[in-house]
Automatic annotation (TrEMBL):
Origin superkingdom: Bacteria
A Pfam family hit: VanZ
Region (Disordered): 152-183
InterPro entries: Teicoplanin_resist-assoc, VanZ-like
Domain VanZ-like: 23-141
Descriptive protein name: VanZ family protein
TM region positions: 12-34, 68-85, 97-116, 128-146
Keywords: Membrane, Transmembrane, Transmembrane helix
Record keyword Zinc present: no
Amino acid sequence: MQRLGPGGTVAPRLRVTCLLLLVAHLLTVGWLMLRPRTVPWVPAPNLEPLASISAELSHGPWEAVRELGGGLLLLAPLGVLLPLAAGRLNVSPLASLARTVFAGAMISLTVELLQTAVPGQVPDVDTVLLNTVGVALAHLAVVPGLRSRLRRREERRGGRTPRITRVGPAPQADVLSGSRTYL
């Protein structure tokens, strides 16, 4: 079982594991999204919000689920890995969600901007929107419950390690009282 570190933080071993998974996931996303593709024809970049989402919805429900679901799931693990890599348990849920969604949006935007220089890859503003929504949904689905579970585990163990307050000098005592009397 994971022990909680001082101050309501996740154990360092869990934080390091999440950080390694985060790096592995980002490397995989970078490899998938930034490798050159050989295609005979490349469409124009989509800079109009919700245009490609509505086009996918017009192709039918199964095609839309496949295409839009991929956009939602691509960066969704960031919604869980970023807060756990930070390791704080006692944090405002709204602030945690805002930080995580902002970081996910910036990572998605960076990937889309880097795609402009890669042959065969086409930047799409709707991909940024879908990736950001995926990060938010994953965060909302997993992180609050996981944090409360880790906090309950901490409380069952008796909370944090008690800290000893500063100890002052002991009161003067007659060590030999009772055995000898001095005049």
